[in-house]
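Suppose a colleague, Dr. K., hands you the sequence of a protein chain of 89 amino acids and asks what its three-dimensional shape might be. Before reaching for any lab equipment, you can write down a predicted structure in token form. Begin with the sequence itself:
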Amino acid sequence: MGVKAKSIKLSDQIRQAVIASGLSRYGICKVIGLDQAVFSRFMADKSGLSVKNLDALADVLRLKIVQRGKPAPIPKGRPGRKPKAKKGR
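The predicted structure, expressed as tokens, is then:
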């Protein structure tokens, strides 16, 4: 039996890339026009970033998403909702 590797969230991978880049958080914020407090909360995993800011951050860090395999299956129905009761009978 193989051991399944734990998946790392995309936001955590982005945080790791920021740290590994060697760039200052101040410099990153200046380049992408992001408030330092917002970026600090993101780096502390206290909040997220908008898609616009993530795009700008990815450009600065030269990040690229790579798909590692097939997408996970999506459950049938509406996740988080109880199925409707059947009428009749």
